[in-house]
Amino acid sequence: MDKSKPIIISLGGSLVVPNGGIDTVYLSGFNKFIRSKIAEGWRFFIVVGGGTLARHFIDAGKKVIGELTDWDLDWLGIHATHLNAHLIRTIFRDIAHPRIVENYKKKIINLKQPIVVAAGWEPGCSTDYDAVVLARDYGASIVVNMSNITAVYDKDPKKFPDAKPLNNLKWSQFQEIVGDSWKPGSNYPFDPMATKLASGLKLTVYVIGKDVENMGKILDGKSFSGTTITP
Ligand code: UTP
Fold this sequence. Notes:
Blueprint: E1 7-11, H1 13-16, H2 24-39, E2 44-48, H3 51-65, H4 70-91, E3 115-118, H5 127-137, E4 142-146, E5 152-153, E6 165-166, E7 168-170, H6 171-178, H7 192-201, E8 204-208, H8 212-219, E9 227-230
Parallel strand pairs: 1-2, 1-4, 2-3, 4-8, 7-9
Antiparallel strand pairs: 5-6, 8-9
Helix pairs in contact: 3-4, 5-7, 6-7
This protein binds uridine 5'-triphosphate (UTP).
């Protein structure tokens, strides 16, 4: 893997806030891992998702008000990503760029720090899409999607116990699996809007679980557990 390009990590909010509480044990391991890789010369953009924080606020809005527009639901999710991203930015405050990317039109020029933290932007997508925008704007060729989804399966593993993980997929095959419409708070391995953009940019996306050692194997060019999606 090429160290001259930044690595974009789409860090699922489910890893930061799994069940409403913050997973400090996971975050401690993530902190150590990222710092060890920076010592080896890697640079990262870390886009942080909303996890259960987003889903709790989205569900609460629906419960109290009844029907809410997708626009309103997405904004609740976006604010959740902002809070989680502030936590990640604080963890890396000594080495991260001081501004969290929340407006993707304002490009960072003269980037000096080895880490940039980013969060949700506009309604209509998830932070997976934002990760792809960063890859486009900062010259990355891979996005690593870390979440509680360990791979792309041939069918939903929560509903079908015989679902099989798929190790290699083309973008066209993956788009068929995720479809092409967006629903606020939905939980895709990689969101349909992000899929369209990543496919057009000819990116490679790795869908892996939460394990940082597994992530390290991708950087080292070793075999890892998860799905690789390529043009
Ligand atoms: P996430 O990126 O966390 O989505 O954004 P997710 O699909 O729940 O991903 P995981 O499970 O954390 O990995 C949470 C919600 O925030 C809104 C969407 O409603 C999304 O579902 N959002 C996020 C946006 O509308 N725009 C963005 O740019 C980012």
